Amino acid sequence: MTHRSTRRTVILATGASALLAGCSKYDSGSGSSDSSPRASSGQQLTTTGAVPVGGGMIFKDQKVVVTQPAKGDFKAFSAVCTHQGCLVDKVANGTIDCPCHGSRFSVEDGAVKNGPATRPLPAEKITVEGNSIRLA
């Protein structure tokens, strides 16, 4: 006995496949679906004098944000929003801001200050040697 596909079965299967393909665009594990290469370890990002105290700088190509919450205290975080993988685009008023849905993260520790994101920005490793800030 063979099982014939009905029109309803074909339509439901097609819709389910399309839904799964659309949902798989975002990687819930890392917050980024982009597979472009990251910056190499040791690459200089900027100088210490270029990062404003209480603010930060975004390095889109490297997908890194470097902040200076207090004078001489430098932090680095992923520039990929943990909500849906957009790149953050601004550092102002003590937060790192995502343009897609309004999530904001602390320049001090990457914690969520305003959703819809529920997870903080992951920390990135940097080294500060003299006047140079480099990826670790």
Brief descriptors of the model:
alpha+beta, three-stranded antiparallel sheet
What is shown here, in short?
Its cofactor is [2Fe-2S] cluster. The chain is an alpha+beta fold and 136 residues long. Helices cover 12% and strands 30% of the residues.
Give the helices and strands, then pairings.
Blueprint: H1 7-23, E1 44-47, E2 56-59, E3 64-70, E4 73-78, E5 90-92, E6 95-97, E7 104-106, E8 112-114, E9 126-129, E10 132-135
Antiparallel strand pairs: 1-10, 2-3, 3-4, 5-6, 6-7, 7-8, 9-10
Q: DSSP helix count?
A: 1
* Number of beta strands: 10
C-alpha-based Rg, rounded: 20 Å
Q: Can you give the helix content as a percent range?
A: 10-25%
Structural class: alpha+beta
Q: What is the CATH T-level topology of the domain at 49-135?
A: Rieske Iron-sulfur Protein
CATH class of the domain at 49-135: Mainly Beta
| Main sheet: strand order | 5-6-7-8
Strand content: 25-35%
Description of the structure:
The protein has 136 residues and is α+β, with helices and mostly antiparallel strands. It has a domain of 87 residues: 3-layer Sandwich (Rieske Iron-sulfur Protein). It has one helix and ten strands. The strands form three sheets. It has a four-stranded antiparallel β-sheet, with no helix packed on it. Strand 7 and strand 8 form a beta hairpin. The N and C termini lie far apart (64 Å). About 18% of the residues have low confidence.
